[in-house]
Records
---
Amino acid sequence: MISIRKYTAKDKKTLFVLIEELQDYLVQIDPMKRLRRLPGYEENYIDDLLKKIKKSGGVIFIAEVENIPLGFVAGVLNKQSKDELLGCVPTKSGRVLELIVSEKNRGQNVGTLLMNKIEEYFQQQNCSIIQVEVFEPNNLAHNFYKKLGYDGRVIDMIKKIVTADNS
């Protein structure tokens, strides 16, 4: 049976392994071949993630079966700046920074259970919306979030241009 619990310091290596797996997948599906994973990526990324979580009152939940990790979700609480309030109604929001389920554990409801848990956390924090960023080529993630009721809101466009450095 899958259980969901809060992150503890002993889970840090698990986060390393899962973020490596995600980054390798994103590198594979990147049509522009702009992504990579150099040595030290996972440690740097997870250290930065943990700082964001601590600073914002965020949380990480781990999914596991019999102490075997299956995936994790990480989220933060967002505060609107004075500038943002000039153009947007006051809103307390949560942001999912990462949702990662090990490839061998996908299709077993792990991602949905993790999202349900973090949505519950955001609801307890009185958030009225939840945001999540998805890499555009990641159709699996797009479809997953749509099934959970998420809608597209902003699209970040990119164009590769030729310069003297990359010609």
---
Amino acid sequence: PFAGRLTDRISQNKMLIAALFGFSLLSYLFFSTQSSGNYLYFLGIQALISIPSGIYYATVPVMLTNMFPVNLRCTALSVIYSIAASLSAGLTPLLSLVLIQKTHSQTAPSLIVLILVCLTIGLLLFSSMRKRNLSIGFQIA
């Protein structure tokens, strides 16, 4: 609720970028604490990473619903969610295991998080540039 209220005051894109930076900064620490054996440290990092998670999960559903007209919203979101859930649930553990085996580092899955953060920020920037160009009168082919 706090993140949703803050999102109403600040733009959704800024809140999403703040959450993404939080993920990128805390993901390495999160993965390193999982194998450290220090449970107090792990709980602290878990509490910290819940802040960008709360911001992300308060912002993204609203952004997704605003992307589609009302008559297509349920169908489009269910298809997109199903595809994304299938890919992430199936590929992420496999990619994490391969990264850990190849690098011999328990923090290697944080690379997946960093790559996804960079892709998301790139897509947000592209989307905002496209909206700005279309509002001026230019069209991107």
